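Hey L., structure's done. Input below.
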Amino acid sequence: RLIFWLNGLVGTGKSTVARTVAYTYHEQKRLGASFFFSRCGGDVSHAGKFVTSIAVQLFSSVLTIYRFICDAITEHSDITSRSLCN
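Output:
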């Protein structure tokens, strides 16, 4: 289980590398989920949709995770509005 974290100067190809890796793993049916932050604005410019997006993607690609997602929602009905540090 890996998390790819790319860091570097603007214009060095981080997004291209990340999208290529995600696409390749998706094609191989090995990608659990992906999320790309962008400073350009919208839902991807902050972490507000991060957890929800990852949970939905994992639910779709890893069927055994269903029970854990349901348990988390049952225990914390406000989970979608919580901050990442909670």
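The chain has a mean pLDDT of 83. Helices lie at 14-27, 50-61, 66-75.

-- N.
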